[in-house]
Amino acid sequence: MTALLMRDLALAIRAGGGFGLGLAFFLIVTVLVPFGVGPDPALLSRIAPGILWVGALLACLLSLDRLLALDWEDGSLDLLATAPLPLEGMLSVKALSHWIVTGLPLVLAAPVLGVLLNLPGPGYLWLTVSLALGTPALSVIGTFGAALTVGLKRGGLLLSLLVLPLYVPTLIFGAEVARRGAEGLDVATPLLMLAGISAGVIALLPFASAAVLRVNLR
Amino acid sequence: MLSVSDLSIARAGLPVLQGLSFSVKDAEALILRGPNGIGKTTLLRTIAGLQPPLEGRIEGAEERVAYAAHADGIKPTLSVTENLTFWARIFGAGGIDGALAAYDLRPLAGRAAGSLSAGQKRRLGLARMLVTGRPIWAMDEPTVSLDKTAVAMFAEAVRAHLGRGGSALIATHIDLGIDAQVLDLSPFKAAPGSMDAFEGAFA
Hints:
The complex is a heterodimer. By secondary structure, chain A is an all-alpha fold. Chain A has nine helices and no strands. Chain A is elongated, with a radius of gyration of 18 Å. Chain A has one domain. In chain B, helix 2 packs parallel to helix 4 (118-132). Chain B is globular and about 50 Å long. Helix content of chain B is 30%, strand content 24%. Chain B starts with a strand and ends with a helix. Chain B folds into two domains: 1-64 and 135-193, Rossmann fold (3-Layer(aba) Sandwich); 77-133, no CATH class. The chains are: A mainly alpha, B alpha/beta.
């Protein structure tokens, strides 16, 4: 499993791997918002948590169609499926490497981008915490979507349509944690819900992903 | 030993082969022949466990088959050594030196796999079989894009594998010069008209 993780990270970092692509997209979306809604600091600080969360979610979505499609095209996926590694474990490792390459940079960059949107002081901590808790769920749910659409030509758009509705609970509670944190309110309830969604998704969804991938490989 | 009894398989939902039975003992090779579309690839994928059979049993294949498809599963941005090391670690088998030597890949070891020619890539794909440490090789047209020297290397690798007590199932159209049984799949072609029951419902 470590071998697969190291290989996926090496592939992501080398030429054409797409490392940083999600991050750059996140940066551009966040920079564009003030141009769209106007430079009113009060308005920006009110919508900042939501914008940052939606931006992170879209950035995460951007790289999902490569998650399994590349391995499918060059035949590695068939070979991995016949390897001693269980498919559930293989897909969990894939989700983990997607999170390290896409989710983790977003978590680290979000506070910096918060400055651009005039995020209120206490919001920085809770924005980072909510993204750190929520983005793993985005990667795992995305892996499920990628397993569903692997092998389809132009599956990327279908993947987005399938995955975005599944992202709704994470988005609601994640943005709520960031909003309440920014306004100095109690964040316990949405934080626990967000953590619960992530934990449940990480524990259960790899089994569903493996099942649909098995059907898709036939 | 791998044994297949009364096997029926389907490609994209349509039966292609039925009533197929054969067995391959340790240290033996079986060459699969038959016209395009007869179901050689489907048979190998079924034996490799990538798809379930319609009917029949496959014994002795679980966790013992190394599968080589048309695509070699090579990552162009990784070097030859990195590609092989990855598969060796996934299968938990030993070093890659023997595999590099068997297909004369040592001079290419540090090159990015993306810069190799088609034949060199294929040699890398075949070298992967040696690092899996699995006893049964299921290979689909392994000699595509190989030159004469490389085909000889491949035949030598298969002979050495059989010598170690392994076995091989090879779908190929050329004569490899390996002492092996040949199985022609044409007589096992699934009878057309399996849709009759469905159509009859509308009669």
